[in-house]
Amino acid sequence: MLWVLIVMTVLVSRFFIGLFDSSRNVGKILGIGTNATRRVDAEARQQYLINLLHEAQSIANLGSWEFETATNKLTWTDQLYKIHEVSADFEPTAENGLDFYHPDDLDIIKEAIAHSYETLEPFNVVCRIITAKNNLRWARASGRPTLDKDQITGMVGVFQDITQQVIIGQNLQNTLDEKIVLLNEIHHRVKNNLQVVASLLNLQARQLADDTAKQALQSSQRRVLAMASVHKALYEHESLSKINVNTYLRELAHNIIKGMGMSRIKVIFEIQEVVLTIEDAIPCALIVNELITNACKYAFPTGINEPTIIIQLSYLNDEVYLAVRDNGIGIPDEYIDGGTSISTSLGMTIIDALTQQLDGILDIQRLEEGGTAIAVYFSPSQTSAHIDLAVTSDVETSYVVTSDVVTSDVVTED
């Protein structure tokens, strides 16, 4: 008979019983063996996960804590001893644990804990501590109550040293503040320089006897001031890269009409809160400048009752709609639908070029009821929320607010 011996290496738990014969010699041995490999593997994996958790907490400067209400016992993990710079024989309690908090932040953590107990919701606060070695550290403290049959038994949480993150954040903020100051100064200087150029053009215009040359210089002056108004709005606005067009269009229109001495023209604003980047804002300012200037010069000969200019600005689907309308005599046919006169008019040439710069569409219409509407449609670099608008009927400055934010006013120039 051939015997084959198969040897298997396993971890087993054994239990043996000896059976004796009449001479009290062992005749047989009975035994039970249980495979313990899985249990040992589970214990090893559990220890591995515990070690992994400790390593993760060490890397993140994060410690865990538990407070038991019944015993008033506070338990810290090893990382919390390191964060607070205390020795291993330190015994944390609810009282001495709070002693580490900065005096200015102590009420913050107390109120957070009390609110968490009251609402059963977790708390999460950023505060400062002073370690046992008198070092100041920033920390994020989080926790939540523990319950047993709806009864609060204590609280568990985590505590993370975020000092390095706070220092990095403060350095970045300081750098950002310096950049903001610098950019504000740049916009301010650009605005001042453009105003100097405008003043020089004005001085030159005053020296000229030829009315055509004088008007040309004055038109250039208004264009320079239109660009200056954008830079002025930028350094006065919270953002240094985009501005609320609503504000500067009003100021721009008022300055143009006042500068041209057209006090009899009423200006109506039908505008939303539109925010544009500087790349879009400057072309828009120049377009509005040209349209208002043209309307003031050509739309209202003597005899037009209540001459009115309407400036419209809104979102139309995914595009910005910018238009200037008037109730004047109407634009000549040769300027409509790409007429040849566009290329011979400096103002219309500028408007057409700026529209192309915006990758927009220029629409010129003579209104049936009388007057002209010239509109530009373009996709902005960045858009704000859509806002419905309403128009007031008064000539006093006013604002109408509905469920959607609305700003519209009617202004008569004095």
Q: How would you characterize the overall build of this protein?
A:
By secondary structure, this protein is α+β, with helices and mostly antiparallel strands. The chain has a 6-stranded mixed β-sheet with strand order 13-14-12-11-9-15, covered by helices on one side. A hairpin with a 2-residue loop joins strand 6 and strand 7.
Tags for this entry?
414 residues; 9 helices; five-stranded antiparallel sheet; 15 strands; disordered N terminus; alpha+beta
Arithmetic mean of pLDDT: 77
Specify the overall morphology.
elongated
Q: Name the strands of the widest sheet in spatial order.
A: 13-14-12-11-9-15
The ordered H/E elements are: EEHEEHHHEEEHHEHEEHEEHEEE
**CA-CA gap between termini:** 125 Å
Report Rg: 40 Å
Q: Which consecutive residue ranges, at least 5 long each, have pLDDT under 50?
A: 1-13, 383-414
Number of helices: 9
* Biggest pleated sheet: 6 strands, mixed
In percent terms, what proportion of residues is strand? 25-35%
How much helix, percentage-wise, in residues?
A: 40-55%
Query: Tally of extended strands?
Result: 15
Instruction: Classify the secondary structure makeup into a structural class.
Output: alpha+beta
